[in-house]
Amino acid sequence: MKIAVMPGDGVGKEVVPEGLKVLKVVSEKFGFSYTTDHYPFGGEYYLEKKETLPNSALKELAAHDAILFGAVGVDPRGSTQIPQGILEAEILLKMRFELDQYINLRPTKLLPGVPTPLKNVGPADIDMVIVRENTEGLYCQNGGFLYKGTQHEVANQIEVTTRRGVERAIRYAFDYAKQFNRKKVTLVAKTNVLRFAHNLWQRAFEEVKTDYPGIETDYHHVDACTMYMVTKPKIYDVIVTTNMFGDIITDLGAAIQGGMGMAASGNLNPTRQAASMFEPVHGSAPDIAGKNLANPIATFLSVGMMLDFLNQPKAARAIYQACADVVADPKNHTRDLGGTCTTTQVGETVCAKLA
Ligand code: ATP
What we know:
The chain contains 12 helices and 12 strands. By secondary structure, it is of the alpha/beta class. It has a 10-stranded mixed sheet, with helices on both faces. The longest helix has 19 residues, at 12-30. The protein is globular. It binds adenosine-5'-triphosphate (ATP).
C-alpha cells in the first residue's frame, strides 16, 4: 500500500503521527506492508511559500492508494494573511474534485463510555452511516456576481445535480448497506421545495432500490431528519443525501456521537482510479494545538476506515475494537470527553491494546 500522509496544521500535526503509530502496530500484527510519503501542505506552508497544493503534488497524491490527512488552518494571527477559504478551496476541495472523491462517508456511532449530549440515549441508539454526495449540489462553485458591491448586486450559486452523480452516490449507499449487513437506507432531501434537483434524487432512488430487494428504504425531508437525529436517532441506519444537507447533518451526527474528537471520515473514490482520502472531521483546533490535548480517536478510526477500504478488514476491525475498548474507560478520556489524558497517552494505550 502506498499511503500519502498530510498532517497539515495545528492538532493535525499531533493526531496524524499517533495514527501512524497505530498503523504500524496493526501492520505488524496482521502482516501487511506499506510505504508512506509525507506532504507538507496547509496553512503554515502557505504562509511560508505562498503556495497551496501545486498540480504536480496533486498528481503524485492521486497515484497513492490512500491519503491520510490531518487538518488545515492556522491560528487567527496567521490566518489574517491567508485569504478566506483559500486552504479549503485549493487543498481540500481541489483534492475532492480532481481525485473524484464522490462519496463522503461518515460513520456516526456512539461508543460505550463516550458522553453524548442527548438525554436517555445510549450506544444502541446511535449507530448510523451517512453517505454524503461529495462533488455536486451547491458546492461545485458554479455561480457568479453581477454588479458586485453595488445596491443592484446579484449573486448566483447554482445547484448542479446530474443523474450520474446522484445515481453513483445512491448505489454506493446500497452497496455499503449490503456489504456491512445494514438493513435500511433512508434518502434525505427536500423534495417538496427543491422540486427539480431533488425530484431527480427521488426518482433515481426509487429506481436504484429495486436492485436491492432485501434492503428496507425510507425518505425524510432534511428538516425532519435533523429533529429525528436528536429525538429518535435509532431510526437511522444508512442515510444517503446531497452535498449541502450532508455537510450539515454529518456535523449534527458528530455532536451526538461525542464531538469532533470522535468523528472519522473518508472521502472516497470507489472506482479506485485515484486516491481516496481519510481524515478526522475536526479542524486544526488552534485553541488547543501544540498542547498534547487533542483527542486522537477520530484519527485512529479514520485509519481503520482507510484499511477497510484497502481490503484489510481484520486490521480495520481491530482498530475499531481497540478504540472502543479504550474509550469505554473514562480514565482514558481526553479533555473534550471530560477526562485528563493527553493525545500521546491515548495513542500509547490504543497501541498497547492492539499489540
Ligand atoms: P479550523 O479553522 O481549522 O476549522 P476551528 O477551531 O474552527 O478550526 P475545529 O478545529 O474543528 O474548528 O475545532 C472546533 C472545536 O472543537 C474547538 O474548540 C476545538 O478545540 C475542538 N476540537 C477539535 N478537534 C478536537 C480534537 N481532536 N480533540 C479535542 N477537541 C477538539
